[in-house]
Design brief:
α1 links the parallel β1 and β2. Helices cover 38% and strands 19% of the residues. The chain starts with a strand and ends with a helix. Bound molecules: flavin mononucleotide (FMN).
């Protein structure tokens, strides 16, 4: 069965919850979801994370990217952009880029942001850039998803999103949830079509 890598970083848990919803959508689209995360990075170069996390999802390996038929990439918004741990991981994928290993694979992006206009869409758009350098095919959300026109919080044509609020206390809304699942499903269906 084709597998889709759902790769995320999350500090407070919102993007992790979105990853689980995207995975649900992937599985409803007929593929298997492989959920992975990335370790934190530290300004102290001597600090190291254990190779296997003590709790939560396993850390991603480069082979996960190579083996999976598609990629859903999620990160919290940090100053209008993806979080450093995800960027740090992406910077380690140059060997795959040199081999063209991800060319033609479909990918989508998702994020959680504190405020409504604090970089939700810029994070999604800038997360696409390294994936396009890899030759991946970006999958977004079309307006045939009626929720896209009615959501009062997150959810964009560029990918799934959540607005967590200044205190990070807003749960994922029903509309945001629906759009996470729809995005995962669309990604899986696209991967299966491309593979056939
Ligand atoms: C260093 C830092 C920078 C942030 N930058 C932004 C930002 O530019 N815009 C915004 O709306 N929220 C910003 N936030 C808030 C996070 O995006 C928000 O809390 C997010 O929902 C966290 O996701 P998580 O629960 O998966 O970690 C920032 C948070 C931190 C810690």
């Amino acid at each position: 069965m084709a597998e889709i890598l759902v790769l995320y970083y999350s500090q407070g848990g919102a993007v992790r919850e979105m990853a689980q919803l995207i995975a649900r959508g992937v599985e409803s689209g007929g593929a298997k979801a492989r959920i992975r995360t990335v370790p934190k990075v530290s300004a102290n170069c001597e600090a190291t994370e254990p190779e296997i996390p003590t709790k939560g999802d396993p850390y991603v390996e480069l082979s996960d990217l190579q083996e999976c038929a598609g990629l859903a990439l999620g990160s919290p918004t940090r100053f209008g952009n993806m979080a450093a741990p995800m960027k740090y991981f992406l910077d380690s994928t140059v060997g795959l880029w040199l081999k063209g290993a991800l060319i033609g694979k479909p990918a989508c992006v998702f994020t959680s942001t504190g405020s409504m206009h604090g970089g939700n869409e810029t994070t999604l758009l800038t997360m696409m850039l390294p994936l396009m350098h890899h030759g991946m095919l970006m999958v977004g959300l079309p307006y045939s998803e009626a929720t896209l026109s009615t959501t009062q919080s997150g959810g964009t044509p560029y990918g799934a999103s959540h607005i967590g609020g200044a205190m990070d206390d807003k749960p994922i809304s029903d509309d945001e949830r629906k759009l996470c699942i729809a995005l995962g499903k669309r990604l899986a269906e696209t991967a299966l079509k491309l593979a056939s």
